[in-house]
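Hey, quick one: can you model this chain's 3D structure?
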Amino acid sequence: MSTQAAAAQRMRGLTLVELLVSLTLGLLLVVATTAGYLGLSEAARMAEAQARMNEDGQAALEVLTAHVRMAGGNPDRPSRSPATRRNPVYPNPFAFAVRGCDRTFANVVSAASVQDLTCAGGTTPAPDSIAVTYEVDRYNTVTQGPSWDPTDCLGRPLPALTATVTVIAPPPAPPTDTDISYHVADNRFYIDAFGPTGSPSLFCKGNGMNSDASPLVENVEDLQLTYGTVPPGTAVTNTAHIAGYLGASDLTGHPAFGGAPEAERWGKVASVRICVVVRSNKPVVLGEGSARYVKCDGTIDSSVSDSYLRRAYSTTVVLRNRR
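Sure thing. Here's the predicted structure for all 323 residues.
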């Protein structure tokens, strides 16, 4: 081949077929790379949403478990007379250590005490609410200030209550009446909207000084509670067996309890099953079918019309101070 022919061969460009094949291969490579990136990005967003949901669900259950477990706390004092062995936290054996509602209490914020709470009417499904009371001290609550003041669920210092009790001194000294102070928590948990976006959140209303209702955990959409009760006529003791689990309205209206006062019915509660439904903090689901989830009652919710991911988290808490 002559020198001129060889130079012409080297300078020859691509044919149209070769150019089309090269463009097609390049386009396929771009599409595959983009699809892989989108897939990884979607998987990362889903994993991040699930991790956030797990944190929120665990936080909500830990808060509720810690307080419900202390319901009815009122320890014996070893140096007291039998009549004043415990502080007068509960004026009678059937006072409300725990009280629930199948909806949010109608006066959850304004009620002066647990005894004054009333359930809101209605038949449509709604999140439950629960009120818990117990004696607090520097060991079972977060303290505040130089005097180690115990606090409510929002960290607000609780006012001190006073009472006169009979203290037994070593013989031959006679018993003496002594003024003592103590603190009682009245914490109410429910679901409400929070912030400009109306994010569903677990709220608490405490009875501390200047305490107001505030959110504790965001993205908690539902709260469902059932109560394990001992049979009517049976005391709540370490050997008592749970007869079954009832919702709040079933417990207050169950015919097995006859005409017993409501406080006495709630006095039969020995354990509480807690279930919270947590949603993702932002839409991450691509299709409505993927948004379905198992609700607290074990059924599948197929009516979800948004793109939020949801999951139910549950636990059972024994009221050890009752047992």
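One thing worth noting: The mean pLDDT is 86.
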